[in-house]
Description:
The complex is a heterodimer. Chain A is mostly helical. Chain A is 70% helix and 0% strand. Chain A has helices at 2-20, 24-45, 55-59, 67-98. Chain A is elongated and about 65 Å long. The longest helix of chain B is centred in the last third of the chain and has 35 residues, at 208-242. Classes of the chains: A mainly alpha, B mainly alpha. Chains A and B meet through helix 1, helix 3 and helix 4 of A and helix 1, helix 2, helix 3, helix 4 and helix 9 of B.
Amino acid sequence: MINNLVFSILIFIGLYAIYIKRNMIKIVIGLSILESAVFFWVIATNDNGGKLPFYQVAQNGIEMIDALPQALTLTGIVIGASTTALLLTFIIELDKFTGTHNLDNLKGLDD
Amino acid sequence: MHKNFKKIAAVVVFILMGIAFYENFQLMPAYKGLGEGVSNYIIHNGLYDTGSLNLITAVLYDYRAFDSLGESTVIFGAVSGIVLILSRKMLPVSSRGLSFIVKRTLGIITPFIALFSIYVITHGHISPGGGFQGGVILASISIIFIVIYGSAFDYTMLSPDKKTFLETSGALTFLFIGFLGIALDGVFLNNLNIFNGKIGSLFSGGSIPIINIAIGLKVGAGLAIIFYSMIQKTLERSWVNHD
């Protein structure tokens, strides 16, 4: 239950930052919070209280944790880092050309 | 007033969305444990199928190696885009570094960071870690060079051209292993019988250690190129403004 509650709150914060904030850096931060919400949910709901997913651990009678969600989350984290870097690069270049990284101050699209 | 109304309406909508998310996810079936399904198969047969004690590495580089290949392609695309946008001219000098004390201290620590990253990469199949994690530690060495010693030092130690070569060679090694699987066993990215030592030793796990090293080089060089491109451009611009 607490997993779904924290997931919903993180989703709310991410959507708020994406749709309300006009600073592009804050929009990227909101996107990262959305990603973190999904990763948190995938890891937390598959938590069975086990230890590391190693074979020796299981032979000693200790329960292993599920290896599949962790591998998928690792994939997602790396892709999230790449896309965040690319978005920040776009913002740097836009700031260089227009002098602002605020969506309200962007001019020149309507002339 | 008008702007505030829009903001409040959006907040109300998002709160309702959050409640809807919560209610819907409460309806999902609870976690059943490891007794059935793919997870059960991986936990019981992963060691014998792949020879890798670390089951996450077994999933990443053997069962779902094709996904890892696509993932490294995503990193390659991101790095290519960033380099294309940011570094039209690769100036060797952009930052000047910190004080003498910091430089000496990091000079002592940096070789151990490099050793740790090599350990994490090469022991990815028998201990926690792997190519992605070790690659990020490897990239932190380049970030230390840029921040502490100035990016001219990083340029002389390992220029962006050499980093690009390392990244491309990592990706090509991964692809080569995949096509070698076709040539030898008839399956793309099949786990080749290259390192067939005792399970738990360093030279075990088939082709997993080679893929780990390739991914480590690729991620480390890619993140180093991203950081170098970004800090070079931004610092260059702030100099132009102040001088």
